[in-house]
Amino acid sequence: MLEDILEKRKCFKLICGAENEDASEVEKLVALYSKAGGCLFDISANPEIVDAAKRGLEKSGIKNDRYLCVSIGTKGDPHISKAYINKKKCIKCGACASICPQNTIFENEKHFEVSSPRCIGCGKCLDICPTNSINIRYETKNFEEMLPPIIEKGVECIEFHISSEDEEEVFNKWDYLQKNFKGYLSICINRSKCSDEEIRHRILNMIKNKRPYTYMLQADGIPMSGGLDNYNSTLQAVAMADMIDQSNLPVYLLMSGGTNSKSTELAKMCGVSLNGISMGSYARKIVREYIEQPDFLENDEIFNKALTIAKQLVEVSLSYL
């Protein structure tokens, strides 16, 4: 049971990307990190991606204690966005392609383009573009249309990203989730639009009158910022988790948003009590050269090289919890 793993503080959650709709990549990532010891896999709320993740679990050969979580969000949440390049303004400098962590920006004859399925909306290309040729579009979906097919697939968890300042939107969608999904619910929140006090107030209102420790809470430091492997890069993730931990909320606490191999070590040094670690950008980055091989799942030599790297990350992360 997922609850047992959280109680034992042994939850390693791989974030494939809420907007990552590359089925092949998701299948490979889930197969690899399941084999490496990951137990929870955060994927796009897309039936085809759920099927791909299930194939990945099957290929890992591990049947017990492996769970799927789909991420959904409110308007303006960075996790449900994608980048688009204005072809008329693009000067074809290639800066965006060089910094993209998903290798999703490619060159054609006159300009660069974004391969939409693989884009996770991290915004790194937006920040580096010298001509402001890139825009981020938020892709909010209708809950009543999106969720029933996902729920029918039998996912064990839904994570709700609540960056929006619109309280009515947040609570209307939260009420819908609680009424229509009987699995585990997770709340993901960051400081981008809410103060610490507003975060505490919002979470308390969301879980009031509920049995303690029936929800996960993912403290998101700086969303999708986990590219580097040092203490400074993960500092905000630890600080966000510390704020939640100090609030003594009756939830299972995970940390994300800039997480890397140093994250749980720093959290322990700071006295932050966690039930698990969520990792996306960094976990994907360190195995990307292998994942991108077409025969990754069939070539044991390539797979095992990636497995050694992934397993080391999972083990060191869990060792400090």
Corresponding CATH superfamily of the largest domain: FMN-linked oxidoreductases
CATH uppermost class of the largest domain: Alpha Beta
User: Got a strand count?
Assistant: 12
Topology pattern, helix = H, strand = E: HEHEHEEHEEHEHEHEHEHEHEHHH
Give the biggest sheet.
Answer: 8 strands, parallel, barrel
Record the strand order, biggest sheet: 1-2-3-8-9-10-11-12
Number of domains: 2
Structural class: alpha/beta
Shape: globular
Rounded average pLDDT: 91
Characterise the protein shown here.
The structure is a single chain. The chain is α/β, with parallel strands linked by helices and 321 residues long. It has two domains: 2-76 and 144-319, FMN-linked oxidoreductases (TIM Barrel, Alpha-Beta Barrel), CATH 3.20.20; 79-138, Alpha-Beta Plaits (2-Layer Sandwich). Helix content is 40%, strand content 18%. It is built from 13 helices and twelve strands. It has helices at residues 2-7, 23-36, 47-60, 95-99, 124-128, 143-152, 167-180, 196-207, 235-246, 263-269, 281-285, 288-291, 300-319; strands at 11-15, 40-44, 67-73, 81-85, 105-107, 112-114, 134-138, 157-161, 184-189, 215-220, 252-256, 276-279. It has an eight-stranded parallel β-barrel with strand order 1-2-3-8-9-10-11-12, surrounded by six helices. A two-stranded antiparallel sheet has the order 4-7. The radius of gyration is 19 Å and the shape is globular. The relative contact order is 0.15.
